[in-house]
Amino acid sequence: MVKRHRAPRPHNRAGVWYLIRRVPKEFKAFDKRGIVKITTDIAVADDPRAIRAREVVAKLNDGLEQYWRDLRDGRSNDARARFEAAQSRARALGFTYKTAEEVAAGPLNDILKRLDLLAQKKLLDDETEVAAVLGGVPRARFPLSGLLEEYERLQRSSLDRMSPDQRRIWRNTRKRAIANLISVIGDKEISEITRDDTIAYRRWWQDRIAYHGLDIGTANKEIGQISKMVKAVDMMYQLNLKPVFAQLRIEGGAKKSRAAFTAEFVQTRILAPGALDGLNDEARDLVLLVADTGLRLSEAAGLVAGTIHLDADIPYVSVKPIDRILKTDQSERDIPLVGCALDAMKRHPKGFPRYRDKASSLSALVNKYLGAHGMRPSKAHSLYSLRHTFEDRLTAVEAPEKVIASLMGHKWIRPKYGAGPSLAQKLEWLQRIAFSPPTNDALEVVVQETVLPSK
């Protein structure tokens, strides 16, 4: 605890009220400033009796004392930086970093080695080196409310490759998982989470599943995300945490199979003349594109001019990690354009800027439209169902599994050799299942304007 004999008073420094405090002895090892001076930004002339300044100084002082406690306990960013530096220096000197308590509890031989190295290198008077070797810096501490921020920092190389929307989704799912855990056990330091806490968290999920109809898969996903974040921080900072999140998975979850439209329903209802006229042109043509390519919504909306090849002998689109990451390594692929998809891409040779990195908005709009116009046979059917319809149609014509996997962007069950199915081979199967484009006069005019060379 910080000893306080009386409330700090404002100090007049060059006509401005300041908080001025000497760093307490117990914190001198963490804050080297000696004397701390923080301005209130209140001029003495405007507050000659320091009435307002006293209130500001009290708040500044509370913040300063919290900062010192966080430094001592390893909770602040500065404290974490000092701990990382101590870890790095200990490794450079040939030791694994241990706190003073861990060093003292270890074998005598290890203590003697550490002292001997400091003596040999004449470092016994160097506070930084002694702290690194003998554990003078406390381990970093992380409340659950700060876990995501730290995990983001550890994952920054992966996050830098994501699109803004991918980062938003990535962050929100983990933010929600942490908020749920905090609602059950409170904002604990991750080092203080017990097995009883995690069992209580699991029980909370079981109750929600039983009484509120939530999905087991959602529960297991959140539990897994929390566990992964804690493990990453534990490994980075050598916190030596107990595996309190182990074996929490809830059994009984069945993998949901998304509904697929029948090919007849797509052709006669969704692709009926005028059926999609109420959508804007980009949303309407993205529906047509997905219907005859099986692209994921984010893949279709993410196409740009450099991935659209209409002038090739076989027109095709390429799924590539441009300004975003792909769902899997196998997602990177080339897909020939036939039927509805070819028509749609001719109208949008540079892609779909309105929905680029906004697949969620596209899905919400189209699903609402399909539902309002009687084109969702059940609640399980959605725009994404067209991708499953695409796969079903390939299966129905007995396309080779390797061709199906290549078109869908799925992992092939056998080791990959060679370049895989060619565009021509893919085209052969896609031509067998291609839908007939809607015979909408307005669309046909646009196609003609796009295809005919300008005079």
CATH secondary-structure class of the largest domain: Mainly Alpha
Q: How many helical stretches?
A: 19
Summarize the main sheet.
3 strands, antiparallel
Taking all Cα atoms into account, the compactness measure Rg is 31 Å
Termini separation = 84 Å
Order of helices and strands: EEEHHHHHHHHHHHHHEEEHHHHHH
Helix content: 40-55%
List low-confidence stretches.
441-455
Protein name: Tyrosine-type recombinase/integrase
GO molecular function: DNA binding
Domain Tyr recombinase: 256-431
Family: Belongs to the 'phage' integrase family.
Q: How would you explain this protein's 3D organization?
A:
- It is built from 19 helices and 6 strands.
- β1 (11-13) and β2 form a beta hairpin.
- The protein is elongated, with a radius of gyration of 31 Å.
- Mean pLDDT is 88; it is low at 441-455.
- The strands form 2 sheets. Strands 1-2-3 form a 3-stranded antiparallel beta sheet.
- The chain has 4 domains: 11-73, no CATH class; 77-134, no CATH class; 144-237; 263-451, hpI Integrase, Chain A, CATH 1.10.443.
- α1 runs parallel beside α2, α2 (77-92) crosses α5 and α4 runs antiparallel to α5 (127-134).
- With 455 residues, it is mostly helical.
- 51% of the residues lie in helices and 6% in strands.
- It has helices spanning 51-73, 77-92, 100-105, 108-120, 127-134, 147-154, 156-159, 164-185, 195-212, 216-237, 263-270, 281-293, 297-301, 339-347, 359-372, 385-396, 401-408, 423-433, 441-451, and strands at residues 11-13, 16-22, 35-43, 308-309, 316-319, 333-336.
- One of its GO terms (biological process) is DNA integration.
- Residues 256-431 form the Tyr recombinase domain.
- One of its GO terms (molecular function) is DNA binding.
- This is Tyrosine-type recombinase/integrase.
- Pfam families: Phage_integrase.
